Structure formats: C-alpha cells, structure tokens
Task: inverse folding
C-alpha cells in the first residue's frame, strides 16, 4: 500500500490530475486487454496440444514451476494459462481502481463551483486513489 500527499492550488488542478489518472488507467487497461487476448489464444493452443498428446497416451504432469512465499507468488517459466490468470487478476484490480476514480471524480465535480477562489487543497492518496481531500481557505 502506498500513501502519497499531493498539494493543489485550486480545484481545477485537482480535477485535471484525477482526469489524467483516469486516462492513464484506461490506456493501461487497453494494453492489458490486448496482452490477455494474445495469451488466451496461446493458452487455447497449449490446451489443444495437451489434449492431442493425451489421446496419444502421453500424460504431462504440471511442471513444479510455482512457489508461494508469504505474500507473493513466484512462477518460473509460466505457462500461458498461469500468465493469463495473473494478468486477469491485475486487470480486475485496475478496473476496480478505475471505477473508484471515476466515481470520486463525479463526486468532486461539485467542488468545481469554487472556481479559482483562494484555496489550498491537500489530497491524501492511498494506492493512487484519493481518500481525503483537505481544503484550506487562503
């Protein structure tokens, strides 16, 4: 978990920062979707190959390439299926973060009516998502 405090001199600057974060997340999601689609094709090909080898009487045991540490999973030479599962999990997390940011952006839109009134804004971000907005009148 990362915690960052950012300062803004007006509401417009804050909203632009959130819009930029949303745009970056959408771009990253698009890249992940392309990679996932490629991995799905590769995983299907591997599954077909395993099915054909199974019909020929060759059984393939899953390789012992996965190690679980306390809070992280290490995979050496992952299969397409293992990589696909990991990326799909990352995609779900990014999508949830995008949904949160979009919702927060809509809620903070009310502050746009402040315009360029003399305020100083401090925002506490937790994992890239605003958790607290502190507005000081200057």
Result:
């Amino acid at each position: 978990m990362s915690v960052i405090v950012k300062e803004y001199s007006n509401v417009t600057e804050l909203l632009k920062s959130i819009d930029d974060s949303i745009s970056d997340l959408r771009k990253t999601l698009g890249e992940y979707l392309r990679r996932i689609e490629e991995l799905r094709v590769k995983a299907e090909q591997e599954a077909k190959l395993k099915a054909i080898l199974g019909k020929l009487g060759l059984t393939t045991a899953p390789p012992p390439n996965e190690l679980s540490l306390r809070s992280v999973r290490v995979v050496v030479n992952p299969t397409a299926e293992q990589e696909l599962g990991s990326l799909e999990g990352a995609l779900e997390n990014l999508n949830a973060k995008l949904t949160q940011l979009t919702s927060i952006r809509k809620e903070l839109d009310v502050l746009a009516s402040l315009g360029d009134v003399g305020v100083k804004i401090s925002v506490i971000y937790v994992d890239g998502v605003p958790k607290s907005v502190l507005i000081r009148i200057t």
The first helix runs from residue 11 to 55. The chain has two helices and five strands. Strands lie at 3-8, 66-68, 73-75, 119-126, 129-137.
